[in-house]
Predict the 3D structure of the following.
Amino acid sequence: MIKTNHFIPRAWAAARRLLALCTAHPWGTNTPQITRREDIAQVTGEVIPETIWNSICAFSWIGSWESWDPKKVEALNITGKYPFLRYAQLFTATGGCRAGFSDPSTKKTCEPWLDADAPLEDGGYNWTRLLHAIDNVRAAGLYPYVVTGNVPISMSSAPTLGGFGVNTQLPKNLTQYRLYLESFAEAAVTRYGAQDVQKWKWGVLTEYNNPSWFDDGGATGYFKLYDFTVAALENVLGTSIGAVGAHACTVCGAPTYSTGWDGLQLLNHVLNGTNYYTGQQGSRLDFWSASFYTAVPEGSSPGSIPPWSIGNFEEVLRPLRDLADANGLHSLPIGIDEGRILAEPGGKLQLTGSRAVGSPYMAAFDALWFKKMLDTGVSWYSRWAVNTNGPAIGNPGAALDSASTQTALLTYRMRHNKRVKALSLCFVHMAYKHHKSLCKQLACISGSHCMCMNTLNHFHHTRGPPDRCSSTALTFQLSWRAL
């Protein structure tokens, strides 16, 4: 292992080699002029995680994962094509709506794609549909990220359909609900074996402090549901659950968008609060996540949307990391369980259901997103899609990979490497083709990786102003071994 005090001089030497390579490249008659140069100032020693793009979301597994043939899904070689994926996140996996139900107050009815309540048959719950969906997840080479909840219609005294069309209320009997979840965990172990199930992830609701998802008793109501859910899993799987955590909406309790309670309260409950199932102090939390959407490109006003532009990524995600670190939980993984671009200017989303836009801007946007995740201590992002089939990744129909998927494939190559501080170079009169040439030349250095991005405040930019150095930014990520 190379000690840090020996490593830093070698990092400087590598930086000089990179700069020499940049200036020596045969650009021909279009030789760019270097107008500013910032050398490497420090080695962070931070390892780039393998998990950055590791999940794909399904708002509804009904009609997608449930409907495919596992043999055909296996033939798609999904993890071969997209090696960065590890989990398929199934929203409202264990319930929240039942066919034929109508909310008495709003007259809203359950949509067919949210009919997730497991029916009671012959003294037990029938999990056939959800288990078939998970058959397809496993056939894809992925592990399920089971988001438990919402509470089945029949288990609440006054079920109410919220903004996302599922029951937002607590069960009238928490013990009955615990047994319901235990029956699913038992069915999963019977079908896949304990060793496989222990590799799964489990979440307790989506955006637990967003009243459109859950709105019964505020923080206390959710803590009850959380503790009884964790108990159900531990009662079947023991302490080797794999991972169980919670997905917050950090802006839902913010003064600028105050629609729910402050989701950060959960950490105090799991560390210091009284567990509503055991009566003892604390509960289990293996990961913590939030949503992060952007309304428009960086630097633009998000209007009536909550403060979600990539420019304030840190403002939305940093509170989770900082609070965990302040309580000594430096190894608690923090992630993004849904998000990306909510809408481009004009409120129109080009790739519906993918939370991505159909332009090259998306690749640069994701590269910047990747860097901000590393800077903020965020371990993963759960994406909505990898290709033009949208969330229907198991659809055997022809599909094209998105620009953002190309970014994911490239940044995945950096996994397990160690970061150095960004090295910025600026050129004038430098067209996009020169960006590409420079990156290609740098990437051929043994063991090193270079990430080049040009992110501006609109979608269709192709060339920066010739007299503005800020039009181009190159970020180099070098592996420890290369130095």
